[in-house]
Structure to design on (251 residues):
């Protein structure tokens, strides 16, 4: 068993953003994420180009042996060397990036991210969005890259169902008539707020919060009241609390 030099080299190149952008390809790694990709990826617009997998994974996930992509058998050690996950003993999929498609909000909840830099936070937020039925996340251009391997891994397969849209948030908010619920330290108590309609939940940078030029678009400034001594909340945790309080109250 051995991954061919061509695919091993491509996997290593796809660790870097510039090569992902040039090739329009990204990696999905690990048993759960690759399993979800094989089961639901095609229906959500994702095309697998190649699959590098152990015999055990192939036997359980591809029992018929019929595929529409290149398939190579690999050892766990080869997968660890080719990919970004140290304990991957299952599979790596090389996947075509679907094109970004503009969309028009249609009475649904959205998430907007202002300069979320940490890939792990973005992946967690994608997973949270999926949990609460949010289908689109609007990202500032400085938000972490959606197809970063750390983002894909942290999303645990939710990247298949939640779509990104990278754009200037000022232009997006200007053209949108939905209320904007901003996560701000000086806002009203979110536990005492009752939303009257779906809107956009705006989450800011991990250190600096929502960018100043976006503040005029915030129609409802809300905060999670602090009881203890912690200086701040993780962006993913804050997103979950906002989603639970706002979306949960409109169901």
């Amino acid at each position: 068993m051995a991954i061919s030099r061509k695919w091993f080299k491509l996997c290593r190149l796809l660790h870097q953003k510039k090569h992902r952008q040039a090739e329009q390809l990204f990696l999905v790694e690990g048993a759960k994420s690759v399993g979800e990709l094989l089961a639901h990826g095609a229906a959500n617009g994702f095309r697998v180009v190649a699959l590098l997998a152990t015999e055990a994974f192939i036997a359980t996930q591809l029992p018929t042996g019929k595929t529409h992509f290149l398939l190579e058998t690999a050892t766990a050690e080869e997968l660890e060397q080719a990919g970004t996950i140290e304990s991957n003993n299952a599979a790596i999929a090389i996947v075509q990036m679907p094109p970004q498609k503009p969309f028009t909000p249609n009475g649904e909840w959205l998430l907007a991210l202002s300069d979320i830099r940490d890939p792990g936070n973005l992946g967690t937020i994608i997973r949270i969005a999926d949990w609460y039925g949010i289908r689109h996340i609007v990202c500032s251009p400085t938000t972490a890259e959606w197809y970063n391997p750390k983002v894909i891994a942290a999303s645990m397969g939710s990247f298949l169902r939640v779509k990104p849209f990278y754009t200037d948030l000022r232009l997006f908010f200007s053209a949108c008539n939905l209320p904007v619920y901003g996560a701000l330290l000086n806002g009203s108590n979110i536990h005492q707020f009752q939303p009257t309609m779906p809107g956009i939940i705006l989450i800011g940078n991990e250190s600096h919060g929502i960018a100043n030029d976006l503040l005029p678009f915030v129609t409802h400034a809300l905060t999670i009241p602090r009881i203890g001594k912690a200086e701040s909340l993780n962006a993913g945790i804050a997103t979950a609390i906002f989603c639970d309080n706002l979306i949960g109250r409109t169901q």
Notes: Residues 119-131 form the longest helix (13 residues). The domain at 5-96 is CATH 3.30.1330.30 (60s Ribosomal Protein L30; Chain: A;).
